[in-house]
From TrEMBL:
GO terms for cellular component: extracellular space. GO terms for molecular function: serine-type endopeptidase inhibitor activity. Coiled coil: none annotated. This is Serpin domain-containing protein. The lineage of its organism: Eukaryota, Viridiplantae, Streptophyta, Embryophyta, Tracheophyta. PANTHER family: SERINE PROTEASE INHIBITOR, SERPIN, SERPIN DOMAIN-CONTAINING PROTEIN. Residues 10-382 form the Serpin domain. The chain crosses the membrane at residues 25-42, 361-384. CDD domains: serpinP_plants. Keywords: Membrane, Transmembrane, Transmembrane helix. The gene is LOC115960003.
Length: 385
């Protein structure tokens, strides 16, 4: 997962370095990993070697074990008490000219619970695009209406792999709406703005940690079935303009993140978190290539474990796109992500610490037992959707 977190941190820095729009960011490392894992099971040779390296898997057995762990962590949950709703769905669309290899079909169905659909990319490219977008819309309960833009699918497309992730969690300790008040938030660029801040209870202890240059607060959700425990972690720089420095610290010391999940339970003097709601979409191909994953995107890419090849069997991934969204309010969090990969042919007691997130911060949504990070993002301006 570290490579996907590196990708997320680089995308965050890209947004910060633009320096003029205070654009918020959210993405799902897990959704990217699932899509790449499906792709890896259909590859071989040097292409497979690069995918295994990027996915931090020693071999195919290790990848299968990691994929099974992810699918188990994201197994469907729909609690009647509105504590947790979770789903992760996978889909495969393959051009009808090609025959799916039985070995890939078995992995898709047993490990990823994905059905391989035969479609006509040559004559019905736009129809297939609409079909995939409708699948994503249904899988994310309407939060994401379109992940494939017009022109993303053409007659040259032969395979689309997709993952859709939906999360809805209720806070273990809900914020009271009547205590939500407008307060100042200090964006990276421009004057302070007034945004609605939720006030957390200080009567109970919260998991909190203070590190060099930043603080971390864990905000737990109600438990799901099988004792799965989700939490949002908020990473707040000490300096109002310190987010970039904090992210650089994670880049230089990847082991630092593990320490941030080992927090102490203490009382806080203040706990203020802004409400926010926004979406973010990006193309992952170029940033993945910068991280060393190159062969899948070149014409030498080998994905002949997915389909029976007509001639040379060399195909390449033309795009990997992800669309994500998140909403945080007094009751809890709703978040969704969809990833599509398209393959083309070719003494005195110290004062209590406080946690007032009134300037740009980073957040993650993590499941505690597996350690899998489902979402990561930053809030630069809570008012921007």
């Amino acid at each position: 997962m570290e490579n996907c977190l590196r990708m997320a941190r680089q995308l965050i820095l890209n947004e910060i370095n633009k320096g003029c729009n205070n654009k918020n960011f959210v993405m799902s490392p897990m959704s990217i990993i699932v899509a790449l894992s499906i792709l890896a099971f259909g590859s071989r040779g040097r292409t497979l070697e690069q995918l295994l390296d990027f996915l931090e898997a020693k071999d195919m057995d290790d990848l299968k074990a990691k994929a099974s762990l992810m699918m188990s962590a994201a197994a469907p949950v729909e609690n009647t008490n509105e504590g947790l709703i979770l789903s992760s769905l996978n889909g495969v669309w393959i051009d009808q000219r090609f025959a799916v290899r039985p070995s890939f079909k078995e992995i898709a169905e047993t490990v990823f619970k994905a059905e391989a659909n035969a479609v006509d990319f040559v004559n019905e490219a736009e129809k297939v695009r609409n079909k995939v977008n409708l699948w994503v819309k249904n899988a994310t309960k309407g939060l994401i209406k379109e992940v494939l833009a017009p022109g993303a699918v053409s007659g040259a497309t032969i395979i689309i792999l997709a993952n859709a992730l939906y999360f809805k969690g209720a806070w273990l300790y809900p914020f009271k709406a009547k205590r939500t008040q407008p307060k100042k938030f200090y964006p990276l660029v421009g004057e302070p703005i007034k945004v609605p801040f939720m006030t957390g209870t200080t009567e109970v202890k919260h998991f909190f940690g203070s590190f060099e240059e930043f603080k971390v607060l864990e905000i737990p959700y109600k438990e799901g079935q099988d004792n799965r425990r989700f939490s949002m972690y908020v990473f707040l720089p000490e300096k109002k303009n310190g987010l970039q420095d904090v992210i650089q610290r994670f880049n230089s010391n990847p082991n630092l993140l593990d320490k941030c999940f080992d927090l102490q339970k203490i009382h806080l003097s203040d706990m203020l978190i802004p409400k926010f709601k926004f979406s973010y979409g990006f193309e992952a191909k170029e940033i993945m290539k910068n991280l060393g994953l190159t062969l899948p995107f070149e014409t030498v890419g080998d994905f002949t474990e997915i389909i029976e090849s007509l001639e040379s069997g060399k195909f390449f991934v033309s795009s990997i796109v992800q669309e994500s969204c998140i909403e945080v309010n007094e009751k809890g969090t709703k978040a969704a992500a969809a990833t599509c990969a398209a393959v083309q042919l070719t003494s005195r007691p110290p004062p209590r610490p406080s946690f007032v997130a009134n300037h740009p911060f980073m957040f993650m949504i993590r499941e505690g037992i597996s350690g899998i990070i489902f979402f990561v993002g930053v809030v630069l301006n809570p008012l921007l959707g």
